[in-house]
Amino acid sequence: MSESNEMAHAELSETVWNEALEAYSEASKAPLERMVKEYSHTYFLTAGECDPESRLPMPLIVSRLIEVATEHANSWGVGYARLKEDGQAWVLSRVSVEMLRYPHVNEEYTITTWVESYNRHFSERNFSITDGKGEEIGMARSIWMVIDTKQRVMCDISKLSYISRNVSGRRSPMAAVPRLPQVTEGRCEPYTFGYIDLDSNRHVNSVSYVKILMNRLGLEHYDAYCMKRLDIAYLKECHSGAAVNIHFDDRNPLEVSAEIEADGVAHCRARMHFEECDYREEYS
Predict the structure, then answer these.
(1) Which has more pLDDT, 157 or 196?
(2) Which residues contact 118 (CB under 8 A, 6 or more apart)?
(3) CATH number of 178-284
(4) Looking at the DSSP assignment, which residues form a beta bridge with residue 99?
């Protein structure tokens, strides 16, 4: 199916969306112009959530980013439940996370999100992670799209007036989300997706990819190196029982690249940048 035909099949109804937004605005007694352009959520890191280095783990960071983005969309009245009524869903396409410092056990941290830009196909949503003192300790950029859940094609989001009204003037200093190349060097390991990898849509969860790829490295690696940046691209969905190959290039412990593919088709690509960091010194 051509791109134009895909978009024609998946074209959103601006009237439906605007009616929903007007209804939400009336119910909340808040005019659309005052819809919150930035949204924040504060968390407390418990011991049970920590990684072996007593830090906030990267998979949980990605999960929190998705959660805060969802809460922000819900505050506009166009979150998961509303889109589901029209057979549509927000889908995370790419995400990059850059950490200056990780929160530690028993520490509060706040994630703030806003939409920086959008076009016909994608919405760019950014994040700032701050500690209990309000100091920025991390940043993230993400690319989202809306898909028709039956046709499995992208929808045209350029007609959604609620986005244009709520694009923030705030810009992130973080480098843009990159396009990741094919991984052709390193080792290759087979993997079969199972029940625990899936989400409510019955395909592999975005966070599961992060966990699977991070598990290719051992404890000794994370004790000696701290991940400073993660770039990950979700290219094609996977389902339960799918047998894939994980191409993993960790010849350079500071720059690790990975790709999950099946039958020559890439489903996910990632790059992890590390710096030497003995976690024991953080508690000395």
Answers:
(1) 196
(2) 124, 157, 158, 163, 164, 167
(3) 3.10.129.10
(4) 138
Our measurement of the distance from residue 274's CA atom to the centroid of its chain's CA atoms, rounded to an integer in Å, reads: 19
Q: Do 1-174 and 178-284 show the same overall fold?
A: yes
Residues 37 and 236: their CA atoms lie apart, in Å, by 30
Token pair listed for 132? 């209990």
What pTM, to 2 d.p., does this model score? 0.85
The CATH code of the domain at 1-174 is 3.10.129.10
**pLDDT of 17 over the 60 cut:** no
Residue 137, pLDDT score:
98
pLDDT value at residue 25: 43
The domain ranges of the chain are 1-174, 178-284
* Token pair belonging to 195: 């029940």
What is the pLDDT, as a whole number, of residue 150? 83
pLDDT at 60: 98
Give the contacts of 6 (CB within 8 A, at least 6 positions apart).
Answer: 151, 153, 154
Q: Which residues fall within 8 angstroms of residue 77, CB to CB, at 6 or more apart?
A: 20, 21, 23, 24, 25
